[in-house]
Design a protein that fits this description.
- The protein is an alpha/beta fold and about 250 residues long.
- It is built from seven helices and twelve strands.
- The strands form three sheets. A six-stranded mixed sheet has the order 7-8-9-4-10-11, with helices on both faces.
- Helix 3 packs parallel to helix 5, helix 4 packs across helix 5 and helix 5 (about 165-175) runs parallel beside helix 6 (about 195-210).
- It is globular.
- The relative contact order is 0.21.
């Protein structure tokens, strides 16, 4: 089987919806011994429903810290963070965990699948935490697996799947709760080039279906799949631009 690069295809930009993420003057400080590290120095960022945003930045830029705030894995030292109209800036850990499970679908570089569970059981996991009945969660997990093209791999365990298939299972797990945002951290980092392109094409499909996607990456070509790129440097947003130009797609021939 050979692969070829298709002609440039115009990006489809969906109309923006309401603000789903609102960050105002957010700072984050860490104490390291006697030194205080200013990871974020007053970040302002709005993300709208139906947007596809890439966050980029070199090591030490504050990119990972911002991702942790957006993902409700941490809270700002000062400033405001609202997710889908809820002020999460000062929430306690148990409240943050509940918001994460309800509002955010995570996709990680390392897949984070339970090795002894089937694909379907991995996808069901967030619904178990939400108290969804067995019958409903199995139905929703099956639908999520079908949505990522893995209807024939539901009962396979992670070690019986390719890297790309495992990442699709992780994406299905992120989708199963119908979250406000999908937060993807270097989702192609452990994949070969062709498989990485397949995964980015899947994100494209999810975006066109109305999902809000925030992609954290250090790879420029991966970021170019988004419709907007936010670049951080030294704890501040250096640039925030919409991307309208064409992009390349790769497929099998």
């Amino acid at each position: 089987m050979s692969y070829k690069t298709l002609m440039q295809q115009e990006k489809k930009v969906r109309p923006k919806g309401d603000i789903v993420i609102r960050i105002e003057n957010a700072t984050k400080e860490f104490e390291m011994g006697e030194e205080v590290v200013h990871a974020l120095r007053g970040v302002n960022l709005n993300v709208y429903r139906n947007e596809y945003v890439a966050i980029m930045g070199p090591s030490g830029s504050g990119k990972s810290t911002l991702m942790n705030l957006i993902g409700c894995l941490d809270t700002p030292t000062a400033g405001l963070y609202e997710l889908n109209g809820k002020d999460v800036s000062g929430m306690e850990d148990d409240e943050l965990a509940r918001i994460r499970n309800q509002e955010i679908g995570f996709v990680f570089q390392t897949f984070n699948l339970l090795p002894r569970s089937s694909s379907l059981q991995n996808v069901e996991l967030p619904l178990i935490y939400s108290g969804v009945s067995k019958e409903e969660r199995e139905m929703r997990a099956m639908q999520a697996m079908e949505n990522v093209g893995l209807a024939d791999r539901m009962y396979h365990k992670p070690n019986e799947l390719s890297g790309g298939q495992r990442q699709r299972v992780a994406i299905a797990r992120a989708l199963v709760t119908n979250p406000s945002i999908i937060l993807a951290d270097e989702p192609t980092g452990n994949l070969d080039t062709k498989t990485g392109i397949d995964i980015m094409n899947l994100f494209e499909t999810l975006y066109e279906k109305g999902n809000t996607i925030i992609l954290v990456t250090h790879e420029e070509d991966i970021a170019q799949h988004a419709r907007r790129i936010v670049r951080l440097r030294d704890g501040l947003i250096e640039s925030d631009e919409e991307i309208q130009e064409n992009h390349f797609s790769t497929t099998s021939a």
